[in-house]
Structure formats: structure tokens, C-alpha cells
Specification:
Distance between the termini: 31 Å
Structural class: alpha+beta
Shape: flat
Largest sheet: 6 strands, antiparallel, barrel
Strand content: 35-45%
Amino acid sequence: MKWLVTGVLVFVAQLCICVPYAAADRIRIKDLVEIDGVRGNDLVGYGLVVGLNGTGDGLRNAPFTEEMMSNILERLGVNVTGEQFRPKNVAAVFVTATLPAFARAGGKIDVTVSAIGDAKSLLGGTLIMTPLNAADGQIYAVAQGTIIAGGVSAEGDAATVVKGVPTSGSIPAGGRVEREVDFTFENLSVLRIALREPDFTTAARIEGAINSNFGRRIALMTDPGTVRLNLEASGMASVAHALGRIENIYVEPERKARVVVDQRSGTIVMGEDVRISRVAVAQGNLTLRIQEKPLAVQPNPFSDGQTVVVPRSTAELDEEEGTGLAEISGSTSLSEVIHGLNALGVPPRDMIDILKTIKAAGALHAEFVVR
């Protein structure tokens, strides 16, 4: 690798935490694919949190909280018709959860609670029994318990301090499964597995590894993201036994050359297979300074003149020294670039701009992802 001037492409070494992907790394199939039909289901409910220390909804701004509290009290046998409520320790919330695959009645799931009114904090609150519905409108779980808030807030007469998000929290194992999702493997003869990152080479290797492990042809790649399994030909006692054997087979996945840039944090991550063709890069910073120093001119004594403001401007244009032209030889690997540029100091934003420019020039041979 030939370097004419040091001080340019060090962005790869400074800001990139790169974990090389060894060609011999083997990964279990269960870590690369999703099994068709094995999925969770989203649940949502509308509930009430009580026991807040004066940080609940203002009922004048959130009338739905008062209405729901009245309904709950009436169901408990308390007649509140015509009464006016003005408590500050109650808040209306949305409760969300995910019903895992094969969850059975009586099992516990985690739930998330989020305020929807003007409550300031849910810290220390208790969620009252809340039904959780799925997309079909059926109740699949019921949530209740003490909320673990994700932040804290403190308020004084003239200042307020908020850390984290106190209006949102969670209840570990706070939901109890009441209804099961009907899904069994027993009647399945053909099943599909879907790759999380579709790739022809990886799918072909999964097909070959499964067929080799079973000693017969039970797997067939139908597209880069799907492998079809003929479970009747597996010779196993059940479909579950066959999948338990398949998911622990090791294969060597193929990865695309990819560069990921996070502009907010200035992070750059590059894969080992990224290649940079022969290219020359010049990078420098220009600083333009313009200052206004108006001058007031006074008229002569005892004259009819007026004071006049005369504009005076100064402009300076500076260019940082030490920047120049750097050349990278053809088919340079990431490790070579890091080795050659490890000691230089280019600001993070400049590093990202240089990467974008190299990609636009067609010299960066990788998928470029900007987040």
C-alpha cells in the first residue's frame, strides 16, 4: 500500500471498532433463521395506574381517566354517580406486551406501561388489572402489578430535573396468559425456515448441511431467503424432534461487504470483506471569518449635520495546513487500511464525509448504510 501523504484515510482506524469475521466461523442454524409459524403476537390494553405520589393525570386535562376510574369503582360496587373526582395519584396508561410462541395458560409475560395523559411520573404506581387484547379482539392475557419506572423527576418552585423517562415503565412477569394460540406441529409434513439475512450462498449451505446430517434429501432451497423441509422424510419420531436436531446443525454463513455509518454518534463499522480500489483523496478545512465593526462619524461642532454610522467589515479565509493527497493502492483490504492509518486524527464528521465521497467515486466496494 502506497501513501503519498499521511493524514487522510485514518477515519477507518479511529472510529471503527471492527470485529473481523473469520471465514471458518460456524454458526448454528437456529441463530440464522426463523421457523415458519413460530412467532409472537402483540398485545395491547388500556388500564389505570394508582398509588402515584401526586404525579398522576390532571383530570381536567384527561377526562378519560376520571371516566375509567368511575367505571372501575362501579364494577366494585361503589356508587359514584354525580361525584367529582380530583385525585392526583391516578394515571391512564397503555399496556403492551408480546405473547410468545407456544405460551401456555397460566404462564407469565413481561409488560410495558406508558402514560397517555399528562402524568409526570409513574414511579411507585400500581397497575390495576388490565385485559390485553390481540389483533383479533380476543383477550389473551391480564396484566397487574407494581411498575418499575425508567426514570425519575424532581420539581421545585423554579426548576425541574428529569432523568430518563419517568412516564414509562415495565412490570417483569406482570402479565398472566389466559388464552393459548392454537398452533401445533403434529399435522405438518412440510415446513419452511426463513433466513434473517437472505443470501443464496448461505441458503445453499444450510440445505447441504441438513441433507448431509440426515443422510437423505429433506431440505430444498427455494429462494435466497427460504429453505423448505420435508419432515416426513426425516425419519424422526415427531416434527419437534426433527427441528430440535436441525436447529443445532452448524453452517458457515456468507456475509455481504457492508459499511455502516451512524451520523448521530459518529460511529463507523466496516466488515472484513470491504475493499477499496485505487483512489486518491484530498481533505482539508476552510475557515471563513467575517467581522462587522461599524464606525460612528460625528458632525462638526455647531453644524447642522447628523451622526452617520459607517459600515466596516473584515473578512479572513484560512485553510488548515498539513492536509494533502493520499493514494490507496488497488484492492486494499480493511486490515491494510487500518494498519496504515492507525496514528492519524481526523474528526468523526470528516471521516464520514470522506467515506461518502469514496463511495460516490465508485472506489468503495461494499453496501453503504447510513443511519
